[in-house]
Amino acid sequence: MVFNLKKDFPIFTSGELKDKVYLDSAATSQKPKIVIESLIDFYQNYNSNVHRGIYDIAEKASSKYEEARDKVAKFINAESLSEVIFTSGTTEGINFVVDAWARRKLSPGDEIIITQAEHHANLLPWQRLAKELNLTLKYIKLDLDDFTLKWDGLITSKTKIVSVSVCSNVLGPIWKNGINEIKALIEDAHKVGAKIVLDAAQSVPNAVIDVQMLGADFVAFSGHKMLGPTGVGVLYIKKDLHDQLEPYQVGGSMVYSAVFDKSIWKESPYKYEAGTTPIAEVIALGTAVDYLNKIDFKELAKFESYLCGKLIDGLEQIPEVEIFGNRDLIRDYGHLVSFVVKNIHAHDIAAHLNTNDICIRVGHHCAQPLHVLLGAEATARASFYLYNEEQDVDRLLKFLPEAIKYFKR
Prior knowledge:
Layout: H1 10-13, E1 21-23, H2 33-45, H3 56-76, E2 84-87, H4 90-105, E3 111-115, H5 124-133, E4 136-143, E5 148-150, E6 159-165, H6 178-191, E7 195-199, H7 211-214, E8 218-222, E9 233-237, E10 255-259, E11 262-265, H8 279-292, H9 297-315, E12 321-324, H10 327-333, E13 336-341, H11 346-355, E14 358-363, H12 368-374, E15 379-383, H13 390-408
Parallel strand pairs: 1-14, 3-4, 3-6, 6-7, 7-8
Antiparallel strand pairs: 2-9, 4-5, 8-9, 10-11, 12-13, 13-15, 14-15
Helix pairs in contact: 2-8, 3-8, 4-5, 9-10, 9-13, 11-13
């Protein structure tokens, strides 16, 4: 079971990752040649601002920019192009919702629900807002026996926001019944009038996310994790909320009319994209979507989970290794595996593996409270994507015991 796509990625054929193993796609994915060429093409041939000039290259830039919006909308099955807002990434998308929606709508005593498994991007903005507005921040608890979330009975009439990750960047799958459980959570939240925010940074690159099927109000994800450039992301905002949601930022291009004592915003999506947007990056993200549209995501899920299962099988044979995450769920549809080596710091393991040309991520992965809960200062994480190969796992499993032996000496 091999996708054999490394040939499409210059960094693997002629760049610094030639003959190396890259196992950190959960942090950022590598970029296929067509995405890199898309960036170069923009700057070399039609570099211009969008939605302003009426000369030829400005018209072309605007057209390409909106084509990318159309591609993204189809990719996540948005009902309308107006629901796709370009941001700098997942972090800005969630901060957008916090400041443009929640800060204006919530009152002291209202409840926000997140999980104990959140990335800082979906924890810190809510934590700060709760302190500033005297809100109650509640956590869906992680069962440390099976590494899944238990949310029954947590939603009340005071719940106004439920903001959760579809997939953990540390543990992988965290919902026992997968996307169906998230859909059930959304339905329960909507029954009490609460809004749902999904952090989909770890899911959109690896699985089909249908925003209409899910019914979420807001969905945030990043371009750089799905073969696109850094500095660009997407915030899906359900059409029903556009008249209620004020712009996150104000400035150039997003205003329909401005006089000295008042201004009138444009309609969505333009009222939410103030100033000069990441034009080249948005266009290249559209190219990344073109590439991903050629991938069978069911086969990708099988491939990634196969690699995860192979890695778990190998790690289970190493007595010093402790694996975090629900192994059954990871074997079914995971794309990453996190672990620690007892009595050896994760950074030392990573440094030794690096001398053997193996790139993994170590640390608290911007999920420090989760690591405190797990009782781990830092974990090592291997994550897979469509350009990985079975021999990448073999190489990691070959040199990890050598690293352990070296530090035990």
